[in-house]
Each structure stands twice: as structure tokens, then as C-alpha cells.
Amino acid sequence: MLDRHDRVARRFAAACDTGDVAALKAVLATDALVVSDGGGKLRASVRPTYGADAVARFVTALLIGPPGTHVTVESVNGRTGLVLRQAGQAVAVVSVSVARTEVTAVWIVLNPDKLHRWHRP
Question: Are the C-beta atoms of residues 32 and 106 closer than 8 Å to each other?
Fold first, then answer.
């Protein structure tokens, strides 16, 4: 089960890293959802976003950062996830829920107060 999660999460990470919207949609379940947490410090949706197309647009707008944003695959809550950094500072930590070969949910932490431990020199 963890191997499957790892494979699907890595496909999701690769699509985010390259900005490949078609690949992102291909890895998302039709009824996927995304939830983000800006903690009132950053702009984030206050409600979940549903559906592969809407989730792909949301994730693309939020996670395909400006030049210099680096996506790394790391353990997030004990499973394969993503960390986005700019100049070594974490700007987002992403975990995903997986069923079969698809991402069913995307959980994005954007709140800078929750990202300190993810910073790198």
C-alpha cells in the first residue's frame, strides 16, 4: 500500500514540478478535492475545491511557483509528499490521499507559522 501511495504521489510531484497540467489531471481522481490552510496569513481557499479540473487549476495556480521554486519529494506525515521551497524557505507542504492509481485528496499547508521546521539553509 505504501509503495502504491509513493508511486502515485511521485507522479503528482513530477506534474507539479514541471507544471504539466495534463499530467496533473491524469493523476487526479474525477472527484478529487483540495484543502489548503493559509492560517489567515496567506490567501487560501476557505472551502475545499472539488473535481479534477478545478483541483488541477487550483494546484497549478498555487503550487507552480515562480522561477526558483523547488519541489522536493519528502516524507510528510509518514507518507510521500511534497515540499515547495524558495531560497531554502518552505512555502508549502503538500500531502495527498491515494486510492488505486489516483490522488483523491490534496492537503496543502501554506501557513508560514507551520512551515518553520521545513526550512533548509
Answer: yes
Q: In total, how many domains does the chain have? A: 1
Q: Under a CB-based contact definition with an 8 Å cutoff, are residues 78 and 1 in contact?
A: no
Q: Which amino acid is at 1?
A: M
Span 48-105, pLDDT tens digits: 999 999 999 888 887 776 778 888 999 999 999 999 998 999 999 999 999 999 999 9
Q: Name the residue range of residue 9's domain.
A: 2-118
pTM beyond 0.85: yes
Given this model, what pLDDT does residue 118 score?
94
36, 62 Cβ separation under 8 angstroms = yes
Question: How long, in residues, is the chain?
Answer: 121
Instruction: Read off the CATH number of the domain in which 96 is found.
Output: 3.10.450.50
Task: Quote the strand ranges of 1-121, DSSP E.
Answer: 28-37, 49-50, 69-76, 79-86, 89-99, 102-109
The dihedral sign for the CA sequence 99, 10, 33, 29: negative
